[in-house]
Specification:
The chain is of the alpha/beta class. The chain is built from eight helices and eight strands; from the N terminus they run H-H-E-H-E-H-E-H-E-H-E-H-H-E-E-E. The chain has one domain: Vaccinia Virus protein VP39 (Rossmann fold, 3-Layer(aba) Sandwich). GO terms for molecular function: 2-polyprenyl-6-hydroxyphenol methylase activity; 3-demethylubiquinol 3-O-methyltransferase activity; polyprenyldihydroxybenzoate methyltransferase activity.
Length: 236
Amino acid sequence: MTEQLNADPAELAKFSDLAHRWWDADSEFAPLHQINPLRLQWIDSTVGGLAGRRIVDIGCGGGILSDAMARKGASVLGIDLSTKGIRVAQLHALEAATPNVQYREVAAEALAQEQPGEYDVVTCMEMLEHVPKPESIVQAAAALVKPGGWVFFSTLNRNPKSFLLAIVGAEYVLNMLPRGTHEYLKFIKPSELAGWCRGARLDLVGTRGMQYNPFTRRYWLSGDTDVNYLVAARKL
């Protein structure tokens, strides 16, 4: 079954083993908790406010971004293929009484066939570099969003600088992430992502880079897309 899905069994197992730590802000997922306000603010300001929007969050994991968008007044569906991750997200939503958020264990491609053009916003953050066919996820995101709706991606650039900072630095020197979290060859150049977006009839509107200072432990958005970067696109 898994071999037929756009998913790497080893990647699913890796994140499933850590699923119980999704909502521990001092765990391996600390960087996601730290960058979440930045990406949430950028998405919210780009679309002119998330309140009242219908959103699907592809690769939601334990629901960190899904939960935050729901608290902004959106109606959010978080989807993932990690059973344990989805259960953690559902449990957190119950415990935190998060309004208007639901979670499903379903592939983006399957949901796109089931609910085409039903969402105002689609997000897919820190997920494309973990699947065998990222271009298929881009196509699914484009199918899920309404004409004129917004699609957001974030991923890692592929170049020597990103290898040094995102893998050697983050995983081996600073120990911010478990070793083996990322595979360099799965990183995605902005030109590659732009090409997939054009092929899916998504018009690129904006790109931002995310930077980190290991001494102050502060993240910020900038115009430097050499390592982590975010993309905003609209459905034509």
